[in-house]
Design brief:
Layout lengths: L2 E7 L3 H13 L1 H4 L4 E8 L5 H8 L4 E5 L5 H11 L4 E5 L3 E3 L3 H11 L3 E9 L16 H8 L2 H4 L20 E3 L6 E5 H7 L11 H11 L3 E12 L10 H18 L2 H43 L3 E5 L2 H13 L7 E4 L1 H14 L2 E7 L5 H10 L6 E5 L7 E2 L3
Parallel strand pairs: 1-2, 1-4, 2-3, 6-9, 10-11, 10-12, 12-13
Antiparallel strand pairs: 4-8, 5-9, 6-8, 7-9, 13-14
Helix pairs in contact: 1-3, 6-11, 10-11
Amino acid sequence: MLLSIVIVNYNVKSFLAQCLRSVQQSEGVACGVDYEVFVVDNHSVDGSVEMIREKFPWVRLIANQENTGFAKANNQAVRQSGAKYVLLLNPDTLIENDTLQKCLAFMESHPDAGGLGVKMLDGQGRYLKESKRGVPTPSTAFYKMTGLCKFFPRSKRFASYYMGHLNPDEIHPVEILSGAFMLLRRETLDKVGLLDETFFMYGEDIDLSYRILQGGYRNYYFPHTNIIHYKGESTRKGSLNYVLVFYKAMEIFVEKHFSKGRYKLYLQIIRIAIWLRAALSMLSSALKNIFLPVVRLLLSLRRNKNYLIIGGHDEQARVQGILQEEGIRPEHIFGLRVNDALSVLNEQIQVNRIGEVIFCANDLNFDQILLLVRILRKTGVVTKTISADSRVRVGYRS
């Protein structure tokens, strides 16, 4: 077998269904790539398991009776796989039609590649800088956690965590890949080992990427195909809780891979970073309590309340009915046929003051959806996707 795709799911049923459909539509699958798809469900309570059994019976489902964490759940499926390549894929992603085909071709032509990551976009079509990362040395982690990397996004030193000095539109050997899309050579996994189950949340992809480098292989960043990563994480990146969870993961990583002296230095530096972030978080919270109600009122007055539905006539009517049932009362709902979307989309957004665009996945393929999302990336509109057998709009959450 050539490819095993492993998706770990926890209470994101609608995202998962959309992800699986994008895999089904991919050119690699259509061209007969020998592949299998595992979904490891970490005891979801949102009906994910029942949905998979009903709508995706071809999926190899592993239904855990507890939340085992990201690393352990992935390893469960990888151990059952015998494929030449393993793709770790988040459920809140969409892949392009050619993603699998292009990535596998690159790996086949680069035997030095142990792992491969791609260019990731958020739900509004904006580039996600975690598509490529550097090893989190004490200084690198400090620059990230104190926010210095945000102020100097292209600096080789201060933005080293995201390797900001490298052009995001060019292929590069990089140090760390994202676990949201991580294509791995099985030969490499056999040599360096699977994900370290000591990590429960965050850090396991960093650890595996680092071990791939130590094993004599390269990790590559491959931007010649795009995926959408909605990043529906329960922990907000800017919150103090995220900083603490991230710190714990980095502590495990550094203790495992660095010398005792560097480990102690790392702990001291990161503690300083945590205190700085805690102070900033408290200040930010205070300012939000004072100004946020006013800002929300002003935004509500300015926010465009019109909707644009892209799809066939029947789907447009169905989605409009769903909006009404949800109690949404927009000023106007506009429809746009798929064939017209490319030529007049931006004009429709501006002229009709559109605030949300809804893609009908029954009438568009996911390649078209990703293209339209990229076109809309500078407009600031909210984008959602709805499948023919669903009543849930999935996508970027404003």
